[in-house]
Amino acid sequence: MRLAGKKVIALVDEEFEDLELWYPVYRVREEGAEVHLAGLTKNKTYVGKYGVPATAEYSWDELNAADYDGILVPGGWAPDKIRRYSAVLKLVQDFHAAKKPIGQICHAGWVLISAKILEGVTVTSTPGIRDDMENAGAIWKDEPVVTDGHIISARRPPDLPPYGKAFCDALAGE
């Protein structure tokens, strides 16, 4: 298992896109990594857009990027909530400063925008936030998956297979 010993944070809040959270979480776990779900409130169960629950094992305030190897930010409507919390923005900024893998899909780009880490970065997202991404200084591409250094981005659920592989490859250092 090429990701044995690796630890990843997956962010959750109400109305995350169910597939965009769970598919990457299971994909990373299949490769041997440990994944911790983190939300505003520890032990709270958050519900995805389509009713799939996810219970936060940690609160954002408890986490330190130095203790983890990567972070996953799901899409849905959760990113618009998640990006309002300084603890999340600091986590994302710390992962960015350490050049550790940051996975974002669909509307998750909003979190990276608010963390102010997209200047000059080539990314993709749902086309609905293309203007937001470009206004934050990103170079936007309409491709299933875009990897620019340690930032791995995807557009929407049909792109999950190549996104999951790209994130795992980055986590493995490949």
From TrEMBL:
Keyword Chloroplast: no
Keywords for this protein: Glutamine amidotransferase
Family: Belongs to the peptidase C56 family.
Native species: Paenibacillus tritici
Official protein name in the record: Type 1 glutamine amidotransferase
InterPro entries cross-referenced by the UniProt entry: C56_PfpI-like, Class_I_gatase-like, DJ-1/PfpI
One of the Pfam families matching this protein, by short name: DJ-1_PfpI
Stretches assigned to the DJ-1/PfpI domain: 6-167
Superkingdom field: Bacteria
CDD domains hit by this protein: GATase1_PfpI_like (cd03134)
UniProt cross-references to NCBIfam families, sorted A to Z: PfpI (TIGR01382)
